[in-house]
Amino acid sequence: MSIAAQEAAEAARKMFEAVYGAVPTGIFAAPGRVNVIGEHTDYNEGFVLPMAIDRYTAVAAAPRLDGLLRMVSGQGETGVLEIPVASLIPGERTGWADYPAGVAWAMIGAGALPADFKGADLAFSSRVPVGSGLSSSAALECSTGLALAALSGKPISPAELARLSQYAENAYAHVPCGPLDQLSSAFGAADAVLHIDTRTFDIAIHPFALGEAGLALLVMNTKVQHQHGESGYADRRAACERAARLMGVPALRDLSFADLERAATVLDEADLRRVRHVVTENDRVNRFVSLLQLGPLEGPRLNSAGELLTASHISLRDDFEVSCAELDIVVDAALRGGAHGARMTGGGFGGCAIALVSTERLERVAETVSEALPQAELFTVVADRGAYQVA
Ligand code: GLA
Q1: Residue 42 Cβ < 6 Å to ligand 1
Q2: 332 in active site
Q3: Contact call for residues 181 and 33 (beta carbons, < 8 A)
Q4: What is the pLDDT of residue 76?
Q5: What atom in ligand 1 is closest to the CA of residue 180?
Q6: Which atom belonging to ligand 1 lies closest to the Cα atom of 43?
Q7: Residue 40 C-alpha to ligand 1 middle, in angstroms?
């Protein structure tokens, strides 16, 4: 049980009752995520280390019998959107409803919903800030997938939920993301991080009870979303795929430090830096996990973990070039204020950064960041459970 999920669920229930004038059959919640380390490695079949956070999107749901999918959200100002199930076809992007509609479409196509699926009423309420890199879209998708599976009486596994949610985002909403966000939302666990091999989808869960170790994870939302964010992401992905082709490997995951010398003779200067980021970032993820395996983060282990986070940011800033001025400002300020380590999290070009901070320094770090970027919204998160049926 998650208190944060229950709060979102209560809001979704109220909205359902107010809008549809009926009682929902079930309420489902799925979390946003923070990626602790391992950025822009997921579409290179590499390693990531995310956690689901105590910020949820909940959906109250009931089946329909007339072939209509009706959706309303406390966050969207669009009123009730109505789409006949038969008209679920990937096309122009229209807004937030593409994500739940895309999941219904993907589930029907994959046989996870019956071909004669008769529709549903859905009411969403979300506590995951939208457009800030905390995976509000994955939370929408995973809560929808769980709800539709339950309504149709055919359970869905977390792996299938993640896979179909990512497929919906790629093929219906036309966002070329990797599997990181959906896997985090589907598999999240309380007080734990997920070490995911994005080639095999093998997941190892490691304890990450920060509070017990006297630590906090501070999220620093810069509140900026740079216009070139989407094209920048697609460009980086294309560069990685091109580099893998030129290096003769299935994915950049297959390259190691030893290959960087050859990469320097095969790739242009910018692509070489993209590759160097991916190779070093995969290594940082695995080193971070080795530290966690030795016990709670304290003493020299805590220092090393912090250094890996900061090194990840520098690599994303200089080699992968997906940071921006505001992210660099909050990361630098957090470190000046005494954070053990800090980095941008998520796709970049705006959105959020995180800092690993001792609780007694939290106030000081927060003050330093607020002075450096007054518009930044600051809050702490804990690792919470993945998508589940709340009621
Ligand atoms: C976004 C994408 C993820 C991942 C990250 C970068 O969040 O949705 O798939 O690529 O960026 O690590």
Answers
A1: yes
A2: no
A3: yes
A4: 66
A5: 9
A6: 10
A7: 6
Note the pLDDT tens digit of each residue in 245-276: 999 999 999 999 999 999 999 999 999 999 99
Cβ pair 382, 356 in contact under 8 A: no
Is the CB of residue 351 below 6 angstroms from any atom belonging to ligand 1? no
| % residues pLDDT > 90 (the chain) | 94
| Residue whose C-alpha is closest to residue 57's, from 120, 131, 123 | 123
pLDDT digits (tens, 9 = 90+) for 318-338: 999 999 999 999 999 999 999
Residue of 34, 36, 39, 42 to mutate, ligand 1, most atoms within 8 A of C-beta: 42
Q: Is the pLDDT of residue 228 over 90?
A: no
pTM, whole model, 2 decimals?
0.97
Angle between helix axes 136-152 and 98-110 (nearest 10 degrees) is: 50
Asked if residues 85 and 118 have their Cβ atoms less than 8 Å apart, the reply is yes
Tokens 């799925």 belong to which residue?
Answer: 30
Structure tokens at 161: 């939920």
Contacts by residues 293-296 (CB-CB < 8 Å, ≥ 24 positions apart) = 293/206, 296/207, 296/209, 296/212, 296/213
Tokens 């529709």, located at residue: 119
Catalytic option among 42, 54, 181, 319: 181
280 vs 60, 126, 255, 283, 306, CA distance in Å?
43, 35, 10, 5, 16
Which atom of ligand 1 lies closest to the CA of 169?
8
- For residue range 175-222, what is the model confidence (pLDDT) as tens digits? 999 999 999 999 999 999 999 999 999 999 999 999 999 999 999 999
Q: Could you tell me whether strands 81-84 and 119-126 are parallel, antiparallel, or unpaired per DSSP bridges? A: unpaired
Distance 363 CA to ligand 1 centre (A): 30
Judge if the beta carbon of residue 39 lies within 6 A of ligand 1: yes
Contact 195, 46 (CB under 8 A): no
